[in-house]
């Protein structure tokens, strides 16, 4: 395919911070890759190089953050020549690609959910996408529907299930006045706690626990965007340990 215009759209959700969402490349040095890196969305695009290799066309744009939250995110890529609109969850970025070419020339397959191993270092170091996608549309073609009806020829649909498995974790939402109180475990030498959290607030108490027999307490809170751990022990001289990260 040699195209002047492209419109690619899809929705995805994942709990992984790395993964190739789709990839295509050609023999003229053209390529397009959409992937997650450190839970951010990265679009890599090159509309080709000349025979002398003097035209540097690689363009990379990053958008979004914390996209590994297992919520649906929508992506739209609109290209007209070197002009690109990249929209993530209704937030649009406009940019122009480097180089001098206007056409995207893809000789090989376009792959969704990963990229084939080509022997290049870039293909070996990239992880395949792990999660769910829906409403994949490539230049007017409903890829999701075609794959489900096995109308893509030639294609290699490997171990796909046309459903989205929800994670087994159960989130808890706290407002400014709510809290969760659970019974302690007396006569235990070990105090251990772990949890995941996400918040926009720079301050707040995450955990508080009194030790039995008036031995002290432990407190975990967010203070100006940093997590602080305070352990107070009443029966030793150096009775307080502070850790901030």
Keywords:
245 residues; mainly beta; Jelly Rolls; 2 domains; 4% helix
Q: List the quaternary state of the chains.
A: single chain
- The shape is elongated
- The CATH topology of the largest domain is Jelly Rolls
Q: Tally the helices: what do you get?
A: 2
Helix content: under 10%
Distance between the termini: 50 Å
CATH class of the largest domain: Mainly Beta
Tell me the total number of β-strands: 17
What structural class results from the helix and strand content? mainly beta
Low-confidence stretches: none
By CATH, the architecture of the largest domain is named Sandwich
Query: Approximately what portion of the residues adopt beta-strand conformation?
Result: 35-45%
Number of domains: 2
One letter per element, helices H and strands E, the order comes to: EEEEEEEEEEEHEEHEEEE
For the largest sheet, list the strands in their spatial order.
9-8-7-2-12-13
Radius of gyration: 25 Å
* Mean pLDDT reading: 86
Sheet with the most strands, sense and barrel status = 6 strands, antiparallel
Your description of this structure?
- By secondary structure, this protein is mainly beta.
- The chain is built from 2 helices and 17 strands.
- It has helices at residues 121-124, 143-148, and strands spanning 2-3, 5-13, 19-25, 31-37, 40-46, 59-63, 73-80, 83-88, 91-96, 104-105, 110-112, 132-138, 141-142, 204-210, 216-223, 226-233, 240-244.
- The strands form 4 sheets. A 6-stranded antiparallel beta sheet has the order 9-8-7-2-12-13.
- A hairpin with a 2-residue loop joins strand 7 and strand 8.
- The model has no long low-confidence stretch (mean pLDDT 86).
- InterPro entries: ConA-like_dom_sf, Laminin_G, Neurexin-related_CASP.
- Residues 1-164 form the Laminin G domain.
